[in-house]
C-alpha cells in the first residue's frame, strides 16, 4: 500500500486542526517520509497527547453544556471505530459522556484520534452509538477493516462475521432477500441540521413531537426544496419537469413498503422484485406496447386511408360473415397522422352511403364516454380499398379478445397463436358472470342516457381488454347502416335489454348455438347458476312483453347488491395497482439521473482535454461513478449490489449532506465530498454540456 499523502493538491479538504492531528503515516509506518516535505500533520505523538489532555479538560463530564446526542460540533455523529470493535467493550463501564469530536470520521484527524484510542488500555468506556452517518468509501470495500460504510453491505457492522452475512450478487442474501434494505431502514430519514451536518436518528427523541415534512404546514427541513435548485435551469423543462410548488422531503427517496405484503419476510427484508413492477403486469404492458407498435411490411393493404397509415389487420380469419351488420366487416389497427395515436378502423366492405344524415349520427356516439364502451371517434367513407367502404374509427385496445373468442371458441386456432392460450371450454364462474353483467349494464345505461341504443350486444362484439374487463364494441355501426329503420329509440332500447339477456344466457350455457333452443339453454343455465342470476336473465328476456315498460335503471336497481360487490373488486384492483405503481416511484428519477451522469462522464470528444475530464468537478464525478458502480471486494472481485447503487443514486438525487470519500483508481488521491456537492457538480457539468461554447469558462 502506498504511503498516505494527505496534502496532495487534488485533495480539497485539509482539516483546520491538521497540526493537532497525528499523521496517519506515523500511525501505520512509525514515521512519515513527507514530514519535512510539507506534510501538514503532527508527527510528534507526545505533543498531541498534551493537547488532547488539554481538550479533555475543556470537555468533560463537568461541562455544563454537554448534550448526550453523540453529535460532534458540526452536527455529524461521532465515529464509532474502535469502541465498537474492541473486545473490552463487552465488559465496558456504564455510559459516561465524554469528549465529543469536532471533525467527521472521514478526515485524517479522525483516524489519528482513533489511533490514540486504539490501544486496549485506553478503552475505558463503552459509548453506545448508532451507525456512522458519515460514510467512507474504500474501493476494496469488501469487509474493509477501517471503513464503515452504511449502505455498503460488505462493511463490517457490530462485530458481524462477514461470512455469516452470506451475500451473493445483487446484494441478496442466501434466503433471497435484498441486503440493503436493512441499511436503508436503519439510516432512517436524513435531515439537514442547518449546519451543513446531518442529524442522525440517534438524536431522535420519542417524547418530542417535531413537525414531520408530511405534516401540513410543517417547516424546517422541508422549507427549502432540496431539488428545486436545478429543476428547470439544469435540464430544461423538457428533460426534467419543473418541480416548483411541490416540496418533496428527502425521506421520499426511500422506497416505502406499501401493501399488500408478503408474510414470509421479516420487516426489514426486501426481495429485489419488491422494488419493481410485478412481472406479470410488466410483461402484459410490454406485450401490449409491442402489439401497438407492430407493423406489417409488404402488405397489400393501402398505405393511406384518409388520415391513417400503417394498417395492420386484427381479424383472426379470412371468412367474414355479414350476419351482424349486413356487410362483411374488417378490423385494422392504424396510426393517425393527425395526432400520432393508434386507432382501430372497422371497415364495412361494399357499403354505399345514400343518406348523408346517416353518417352524422356518429356525432352523438362521440359523446358517450364510458369505461365499458369502446369510444367511437369518427366515421367516413373511403375508396382506398378499391371499393366503396364505410370506415368507423374507434379506440384501439391492444391484445383484446372478444367474449366469443374467450368463451365460445370463435377463431380458436388463431387465438392460440395470438394470445398463446387457447380458450378453455370451462363454465364461467358465477362471480365472473355477475362482473360481466354489471359492466354491460354500466355501458347500456351510459348509451341509453345519451338517447341512443347499443343495437349490437353480441359475444363477438364485446371486447375483453384486461382481466374480466369488458367493453362494448362496434357501437354506432347499425345507426349508420340501418339509418332508415322504423323502430323508435325506446323500442330499440328495450331490444337492447332482450339482447343483453340472450348474451348472458349464451355465455352461461357456454355454446354459441344454444340460443337455437332457448328452453334447453335456460334449463342448462338454471342448473349452473343461482336463482338470483337466473331471475335477472329472465327479467331481461321478458323486457319487450311486460308492462309497465322496463328500462336499464330498473334493472340496475334490481342488481344493486352485485354492483356493490363489483365496485368493491374494482377498489381492490385500484389498491393493488396503486401499490404496484409505487414500486416504480423512483425509477424515472433514477434513470434520468443515471442518464445525466452517463452524459457527463468520460465523453470521448473531451478525452484529451484535461480541463474537461481530469480536473475539478468532472474528476470527482468520475470517481463517484466508480464509487457507485465499480466497487470491488477484498479479493478484487466486483461488488454487484443493487442496494448500494440505489442508495447512492437516491442520496445523490436528494443532495444529502452525507459525506463520502472518493479514492482515485491508483489510490494516490482522495476527495471527501458530500452528495450535495456531487449533485451540484453534476448539475454544473451538465449545464456546461448544454452550452458547449461556454463550457471552458
Ligand atoms: N377496438 C379494437 N381494438 C383492438 N382489437 C379489436 C378492436 N375491435 C376488434 N378487435 C379485435 O379484432 C378481432 C376481430 O373483431 P371483430 O369485431 O371483427 O370480430 P369477429 O370475431 O371477426 O366477428 P365477426 O366474424 O362477426 O366479424 C377480434 O379479435 C377483436 O379482439
TrEMBL record:
Question: Key word Zinc present in the record?
Answer: yes
Q: Which Pfam families match?
A: Pan3_CK, zf-CCCH_PAN3
Cite a GO CC annotation. PAN complex
Which amino acid positions bind ATP, per UniProt? 346, 395-402, 460-461
Domain (C3H1-type): give its ranges: 17-46
- Chief localization: cytoplasm
For region Disordered, the annotated ranges are: 70-116
List, as start-end ranges, the regions of compositional bias called Low complexity. Answer: 98-112
Annotated ranges, domain Protein kinase: 317-606
Q: Where is this region: Knob domain?
A: 600-697
Mapped zinc finger ranges (C3H1-type)? 17-46
The parts of the chain that form a coiled coil are 561-599
Gene Ontology BP annotations: mRNA processing; nuclear-transcribed mRNA poly(A) tail shortening
Q: Which UniProt keywords apply?
A: ATP-binding, Coiled coil, Cytoplasm, Metal-binding, mRNA processing, Nucleotide-binding, Zinc, Zinc-finger
Q: Which residues cross the membrane?
A: none
User: What binding partners and quaternary form does the record give?
Assistant: Homodimer. Forms a heterotrimer with a catalytic subunit PAN2 to form the poly(A)-nuclease (PAN) deadenylation complex. Interacts (via PAM-2 motif) with poly(A)-binding protein PAB1 (via PABC domain), conferring substrate specificity of the enzyme complex.
Which family does the entry's similarity section mention?
Belongs to the protein kinase superfamily. PAN3 family.
Record remark: domains: The pseudokinase domain, the coiled-coil (CC), and C-terminal knob domain (CK) form a structural unit (PKC) that forms an extensive high-affinity interaction surface for PAN2. The N-terminal zinc finger binds to poly(A) RNA.
HAMAP family according to UniProt: PAN3
What does the record give as the function of this protein? Regulatory subunit of the poly(A)-nuclease (PAN) deadenylation complex, one of two cytoplasmic mRNA deadenylases involved in mRNA turnover. PAN specifically shortens poly(A) tails of RNA and the activity is stimulated by poly(A)-binding protein PAB1. PAN deadenylation is followed by rapid degradation of the shortened mRNA tails by the CCR4-NOT complex. Deadenylated mRNAs are then degraded by two alternative mechanisms, namely exosome-mediated 3'-5' exonucleolytic degradation, or deadenlyation-dependent mRNA decaping and subsequent 5'-3' exonucleolytic degradation by XRN1.
Descriptive protein name: PAN2-PAN3 deadenylation complex subunit PAN3
- What organism is this sequence from? Penicillium salamii
| Chain's gene name | PAN3
